[in-house]
Amino acid sequence: MSQTVDRALSILPLLAEGPADLGQVADRLGVHKSTALRLLRTLHEHGLVYRQSDQRYRLGARLFALAQEAMENLDVREIAHPHLVRLNESCGHTVHLAVYEENEVLYIDKVESRYPVRMYSRIGKPVAITVAAVAKLLLADLPEHERRGIAEKLDYPMYTSRSTPNAGAFLRELEKVREQGWATDLGGHEESINCVAAPIRGADGRVVAAMSVSAPNVVVTADELLTLLPQVRRTADAISGEYSGRTPVKGTV
């Protein structure tokens, strides 16, 4: 039975390459045409493959509907939380998870620092979009015309002398973040607070969320915080793998 399931599932990536006829499927699986036909008929009955008028088979609409439903029901916060906790236990600093929704970047999870000096932030609160590291990652992943449209509509409050001053500077920063794959906020929102962040990606490679580690200067310097970047990126990659279904669940730090 397991061999039959394995063979049936092997048909799907073949058809993802494009329509194939019975002979091509049988050859790829290394089975007789009658065996391939039984497998294709079963997949067809469940809507996972479709038989075209030219007698070739392609992936069925039901497969795409299932994939879409599964993606809509994925909760990135639920998947990410254990990883965020482990990272917090390892480094001791505040860890955030954020998403971009309806023109705002919102924190959807937070694990508090173990140090007495803590950040004032809360779940559900919008971030300072022009300076926050998580916001830079989420906006940097958007198509260029969307990035530009958003940048030109934003206000640019000078929270500190290191805040992003205007749309041009913001777009240049987003391009830099897009190229390097991580972001920082080194005193851009609060002089005494630094932050490093990494993206969480879905199965299609798009950024679905961003996570960050933040700490005040009295606890660690900006340079010391930056040494945590590899650890932050490993955590984000582990969350991405689990969220997209590419890797099994395992520890990340």
UniProtKB/TrEMBL annotation:
It comes from the Bacteria. SMART domains: HTH_ICLR (SM00346). Keywords: DNA-binding, Transcription, Transcription regulation. The keyword Metal-binding does not apply. PROSITE patterns: HTH_ICLR, ICLR_ED. Residues 2-61 form the HTH iclR-type domain. Residues 62-245 form the IclR-ED domain. The keyword Transcription applies. InterPro entries: GAF-like_dom_sf (IPR029016), HTH_MetabolicPath_Reg (IPR050707), Tscrpt_reg_IclR_C (IPR014757), Tscrpt_reg_IclR_N (IPR005471), WH-like_DNA-bd_sf (IPR036388), WH_DNA-bd_sf (IPR036390). This is IclR family transcriptional regulator. It comes from Streptomyces massasporeus.
